[in-house]
Write a structure and sequence with these properties.
InterPro entries: Methyltransf_25, SAM-dependent_MTases_sf. This protein is of the alpha/beta class and about 170 residues long. The chain has 7 helices and 7 strands. The protein has a 7-stranded mixed sheet, with helices on both faces.
């Protein structure tokens, strides 16, 4: 299998999260598995639960990260956040990159579900490509409001190169 690169924007976002070896992380929208690969490489006793609505995204993540699936560090499921009913109550972090759910429609139920699953002191990290500067204020406003309504304390970070905006909700 050819070596797959990890885009700089994904690398920056995962670095920003400061993944710890014992973290329990939910990734929403795992897509091709680049973030999952990077996150799992930093876990020892922790685990990543990656979900995606797309069958092809799930398949690509499983193939790319097969060694982590086999090692028990990664579980990948085809499901959307709204129907996630896994009794995970010990998440330290939630990660999503370019998941439009958080800014294009009402996501109160999904964010409330995250608030139930994230441990006190844990965080939700929502990152978006900021290559469309006209969309950034709307992304920040809507995603921040959704997190605040659910009880998260919100902060915003921006990275110029690569162009990424992050909305962090701390529980």
């Amino acid at each position: 299998m050819a070596v797959q690169t990890i885009p700089a924007r994904i690398r920056w976002a995962v670095d920003f999260m400061e993944v710890q070896p014992n973290d329990h992380i939910l990734e929403i929208g795992c897509g091709p598995g680049a973030a999952a690969e990077l996150i799992c490489s930093r876990l020892e006793t922790g685990k990543l639960f990656a979900i995606d609505r797309s069958e092809s995204g799930v398949d690509r993540t499983r193939r790319r990260c097969a060694k982590y699936v086999e090692a028990g560090r990664l579980t990948v499921r085809q499901i959307d956040l709204a129907t996630l009913r896994v009794p995970v109550k010990r998440l330290t972090k939630v990660f999503a990159f370019n998941v439009n759910l958080f800014w294009v429609r009402d996501c109160a139920d999904e964010v409330a579900l995250l608030h139930e699953r994230v441990l006190p002191g844990g965080s939700v990290y929502l990152f978006f490509d900021a290559t469309r500067p006209d969309q950034v204020p709307t992304m920040v406003e809507k995603a921040s409001a959704a997190l605040q309504t659910a009880g998260f304390r919100v902060s915003v970070v921006e990275q110029k190169a690569p162009a990424v905006v992050g909305i962090i909700g701390k529980r």
